[in-house]
Amino acid sequence: MQKQEDLDFIARFKSGDKSVFEELVQRYQDRIYNLCRHMLGSASDAEDAAQDTFIKAYQNLKKFRPEASFYTWLYRIAVNTCLDYKKKPFFESLFKSSTEGEEYISEPVSDQPSPEKLFKSKQLGFALSKSLGKLSLKLRTVIILKEIEGLSYEEISEVLDVSVGTVKSRISRARDELRILLKDFTEQK
User: Fold this and answer.
1) Domains of the chain, start order
2) What share of the chain is helix, strand, coil (3-state, %, to 5)?
3) Second label for 145, Cα 20 to 30 Å away, from 154, 164, 171, 186?
4) In this structure, are residues 73 and 151 in contact, taking their beta carbons and an 8 Å threshold?
């Protein structure tokens, strides 16, 4: 149903109703920001990349083909925008070792976590962030799209313009590398 609504919005946009683009932005802005945040690590870079993603989408929406999924088309723009940001010389590495990333590491689900559980959760979050940062960009991108953004293999395939087999292979390699990188942390528990 959402795909059909997206296609209806796009048809209205192509026929001159530019105001519908705001509805598409509202629908996807949180997901695009979160993707950019996980890929770039910095909140301010993520905001800029998300904004650039929507600007590029607005400028190219007339080229969008209705047989494709708007959702994966937009994700592909976001991934490419983040990759462009990675090429900027002032960009610092993904998942810095400082505490800057602490604000987006999720808290434990229980109502009142013990200080020990909270500490261990944050430790795991930092260990995972550092480990993700050590993966190659190709492996990091697929694991973020699959495990954090929740995209299917087919959607990741469309976003990255690679085969489903390549996606599965990269996810498997990323998981294997993460297991190795997190081995010391998990053995301490």
Assistant:
1) 1-93 (1.10.1740.10), 107-189 (1.10.10.10)
2) 75, 0, 25
3) 186
4) no
